[in-house]
What we know:
alpha+beta; Chitinase A, domain 3; 4-stranded antiparallel β-sheet; 3-stranded antiparallel β-sheet; elongated; disordered N terminus
Amino acid sequence: MNLKTGIIVALVAAASVAQAQVASHAPALAKPAEIANTQGASGSMQVTGKAVVRVNGVELTDRDLVREMLQIFPYASTHNGFPKSQEESIRKGALSMIEFEELVYQDAEQRKVTVPPEKLNKAVAAYRKRFGSDEEFQQYLKAEMNGSKEKFRKTVRRSLLIEAALKSELDIRSHVTAAQVKEFYLKNPKPFTHPEQLQFQTISIMPPDNAAATVKEQAHKRANEAWEQAKTTHTYEEFGLLAEKYSQDDFRVDMGNHKLTPSTALPKEVLQILDPLKPGQVSSICQFGPYYAIFRLEARVAAGKTPFAEVQAKLQQDLQKERYNSLRRELDKRLRAKAKVEEL
C-alpha cells in the first residue's frame, strides 16, 4: 500500500467509525464470500463462531461482529485486514451496532411489530436473486445458516423488523419540514454569513534561501520573463498555463489557482496586492525576500449572507441527520436501561 492510499484508507476508516457510533441501519445479509474471505485471517478478521456478546440472554457471535466491521470498513478484504491504528475503534463501533440492532429487534418483538407475509416473501426472493446460482446460494446457507432455509427466512424477517422499528422510531420522527429549515436559517444567521472572499492565481519563483548570486539573478530574470507574458493574458486558462510552466509553488499543478478564501484569512501583504485589482487584472512583480510572485485576481465575492435557496437542501439534510442521531442515542440509552448486555 503506498503512502497516498494508506492515508485515504485511514481517513475513510476514521470517518466510518465515527458514523457507526451514532447512526444505524437495517443489518446487512452478507454473501458467503464476504465472510469466507476472512477465514484464516488474523486479528479481528478471524471468524470462529465464538460468542462475543450476550443481549438479554441472546448470544451474538464473532461472525455477526466481523460482518458489521466489514460494513464499517469494506476495504478490509482488499487491504489485508483492518488498519492497525483503527482496528480497535472499528471493533468497538461494530460491537455497539450489533448490540443496538439486537435490542431494537427484541423490543420490536415485545411490541408485536409485524411484517406482512407478502413483504417478507418479496424480501426473501429479492435477496435470493443476489446469488449467481443455486449452488452459490446453497453455499451461503451452509456457511451462514447451518443449511437451514427457515433460519434464512427468520434472518430476513429480523432485518425487516429492525428496519420497520427504526423507520417509526427514527426516520419519521427525524423529518424536518421546509418551514423548520427556514426558521433555523432566520434565527441562526451567523453560519450563513461570510466576509469578503477572494479567488486568485499565482506564479511564484522561489530560489533557495541560500542561493548564490547567479541563481538569484536567474530567478529575477525568470520572474520578468513570466510577467511579460502574464500581463498580456486575458483568461484564467491563459494565466494558468503560464503558472504550470513557470511557477515553483504547489499551486502550479492547479493552474496557480487559490480557491475562494476569506479575506480575513489572507496575509495583509497579499491583501495589499489584491485589493486594488479588479477580476481579470494581473499585478506587477511582487518580491517577498528572495521570492518573486505575480498575482491575478479571478473573483471577488462581497461580504454578505448566503441566500436561503443555496443552503436549503444541505441545511435540511444536516438538521435531519442531527435529529436522527439524537433520537438514535436516546433510543439506545432507553433500550439499554432495561436490558442486560454482557460483552464476553
